[in-house]
Design brief:
heterotrimer; A alpha/beta (355); B alpha/beta (245); C alpha/beta (177); B: 245 residues; 9 helices; globular; C: alpha/beta; Pyruvate-ferredoxin Oxidoreductase, domain 3; 6-stranded mixed β-sheet; 6 helices; 21% strand
Chain lengths: 355, 245, 177
Amino acid sequence: MAKVLMKGNEAIGEAAIRAGCKNYFAYPITPQSEVAEYLARRMKDVGGVFLQGESEVAVSYMLFGAAACGERVFTTSSSPGISLMSEGISYMAGAQLPVVLVNIVRGGPGLGGILPSQGDYFQATKGGGHGDYRLLVMAPASVQEAVEMVMAAFPLAEKYRNPVMIIGDGLIGQMMEPVEFPDDLVSEPTNKDDWATNGMDSRNAGTPNIVKSLHLDSKILNDLNLTLKAKYDRMKKEEIRYEAYNTDGDYRVLIVSYGTMSRVCRTAVDNLKESGFEVGMIRPKTLFPFPLEAIRKAAQKDSCKAVISIELSMGQMVEDVERAVQGKKPVEWYGMCGGDIPTPEEVMDVVRKLG
Amino acid sequence: MPKTFRKPEALSDAQTHYCPGCTHGVIHRLIAETVDELGIRGRTVGIAPVGCAVLAYNYFTFDFQEAAHGRAPAMATGMKRVRPDLIVFTYQGDGDLASIGMGEIIHAANRGEKFTTIFVNNAVYGMTGGQMAPTTMPNQKTTTSPFGRNVEEVGMPVKMAELLAALQTPAYITRQTVIRPKYITRAKKAIKQAFTYQMERKCFSFVEVVSTCPTNWGMTPVEAVGWTEDTLLPYYQIGDVKVPE
Amino acid sequence: MQKDVIFAGFGGQGILLMGSILAHAAMDLGFEVAWVPSYGAEMRGGTANCTVVIGDRPIGSPIIKNPQHLVAMTRPSLEKFGPLVKPGGVILINSSLIPVSSGRDDVDEIKVPANDIAMKVGSVKAANIVALSAFVARSRFLDYDMVIACMKNQFGSKDKLIQMNLEAMEAGKKAAQ
């Protein structure tokens, strides 16, 4: 298919439709409202469901209800909205429902700002809601990658019967870049009759399915949590995605950066290379599961003097980077939080001092 | 000997956990009879949120979802939007529907979502142990209104049926009770009517059922029936509040 | 190779569209491209700007603090971005609305009365097209004819508009000489 120039937010909406998801529930919030505006029209074309809920809280349960019927469903929101949905996300994880959520992250805490931020790393990867659960979290660095991740998210959510979150930011959402849509994904969840409350007649069954997260018996609840843990462990084996950039040869510093911030770092790595200063970069594409092993190995290279996590937060991913490096090399952090994005020059200055 | 009375097919054999004198069991049965009579067991999905009826999924023989406190109408919305052919009902208590879930029920009703809500109003939080609800009566003592509900501080009890009936969107809104056989017959008719409207995709349907909670009211079951008649029913008057054209 | 330009002015001047036309043309020519708008709480009447970055390899940071070129449609936008332009770049000033210069002697400054020219061809709304045309002609940011072809695409469904915009393009090109 030919390339089209599209805003990230609109491309995300289109990608979901092409992935076979015709059900969208959402509540408006900057900087991602264009997804809803796009789908309000587009869902009519494709005979899908578009509904603007009365709040993010309600939306999260509309997703729950729709997913519990075995239908593909997704939403998009931004940080404060995701906080409101976190109750529902915990219930989805507990009830093992495949739901796709997109968080176009804005600055916080509180109302914060609407400019690019990566301040929701902890919320996304460590569980924003209550209880022992994880989301599979992907972070695109371009509009094209956002499209690919949205399309991949649905089969992944169904494979694991677990919510999948894609986190971008205002830049990914508002920017226009050329996009090529992969072929339509027509796969259907195959196992839904085993668990979905899609009506007994729909699956020719004589016994009801129950979707729930309540388990008052301590052993049953522990068993459920073991089941969830096994899923998360499997994700760690099968779903880790990252890009290694300029790591084949020797380098003096290793950058770990993702999403929008990694684009700036890539320019910095290129510029430093031209000046004879080699820097490697690991760009996690999945934030959970996190590419611990890749970072560990890259940090162990003899030439590497230090590792730095560069992120649009006051140091969240750096804790996972420390976990990866295990004290074998110094781990530093650099970032900004107000919405400004460090320039390549600023990154270069910081990195030069480490090597 | 031929059986003249049996459990509806839509009710399971499980023994319920409800207290003596509680009316949940009666309301469950009326729903189950309705599902049987309409022949919709294979496409019915119930939703019961946090509250005394949170374990309702054990008592019916059709698909069921358990919900977070107050959110059942949003879940039912999601379900009916993606599967309009399913018959969906929410089964909610007063703390759930009239307090934490007030937003969800009003907006679902106002959108005219084509599902049915059974609203069990017993003027108190049951499962959490008898705390004050939005529907608790003036001067009624609960664990969080130990001196009686002070309407100067917390306002008057909410009449949900009338509140929802004020919305302009067409709906079937009715209030019933099940404390005596004569009322049960009427309540059954109303519940069946509500499901029928849903099957015809006509409108949102809402059946408030004024119920008892002898345990948390600190009464015997017989006293609870009397208190319902003397105190609740004059305020929560039974009958249809709104009927679609 | 990487090139970038900031278009800046008030909301309602068609600032984002100028960038979008240029970005589409760049994509059609096979370049990597990123179009980044400013966005904010002010939906109308506030400042608006967008950056277009093109290159022959994937674009790293699309956030440009020091642009190579600037198209300033209002005085506040000239005052905000004028000092940031890299030496040697083009600063296009919409002299219909901006009575001053950039004060820079290390850039190629060009004054185009875009609003006045646009009114002559039919509508002040075409001022953005006049300025875009003048900018492309002066900076050779992209092949001029390709940009015209792209503009035709974008206005394809409105015949009356396209004639006016073609005239605006022609007038802008002349003004840049």
